[in-house]
Design the sequence.
């Protein structure tokens, strides 16, 4: 979840995979500047089309991709989790 947007965890994991492929390894922590190319990606889950229409899409995508980090359990990646970290 990010603000009013709610997405399935599997879609967020796919988003992270796409984002990892769209930036250099050294820039992993930076906000992606190529959100338009990400939004034009055919493999982008349809749930993210509404995000693509927003100016703050890169920030939303970045926050969502953090929820799909490999070191978080699926419970901690969801809003229902309390106190995992």
Sequence:
């Amino acid at each position: 979840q990010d603000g009013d947007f709610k997405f399935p965890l599997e879609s967020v994991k796919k988003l992270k995979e796409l984002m990892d492929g769209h930036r250099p390894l050294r820039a992993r922590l930076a906000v992606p500047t190529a959100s338009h190319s990400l939004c034009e990606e055919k493999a982008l889950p349809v749930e993210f089309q509404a995000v693509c229409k927003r100016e703050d899409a890169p920030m939303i995508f970045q926050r969502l991709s953090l929820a799909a980090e490999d070191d978080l359990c699926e419970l901690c990646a969801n809003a229902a989790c309390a106190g995992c970290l």
Q: What stands out?
A: The radius of gyration is 12 Å. The chain has one domain: 9-75. The CA atoms of residues 1 and 7 lie 6 Å apart.
